[in-house]
Amino acid sequence: MEAAFRANGTEEMEVNQLLTHPMLFPFNLTVGTDDLRRSKCYVVHRQSIDMDVVALRSPALKNP
Prior knowledge:
Elements (H helix, E strand, L loop, with lengths): L1 H7 L3 E3 H5 L13 H6 L3 E7 L2 E6 L8
Antiparallel strand pairs: 1-3, 2-3
């Protein structure tokens, strides 16, 4: 999934956009928002009433 960020040239994207990114074809990801929230690699925050945004966690924050 990190490759999708790199290919997109962005630091954050909407969770659904990440999980359905064309670059991830033909893989079928079974990861959800809760999985991303628990990951040490990503930061997820709510941007609007129905949109979660995910960003790569900076290396300094991976091991607090």
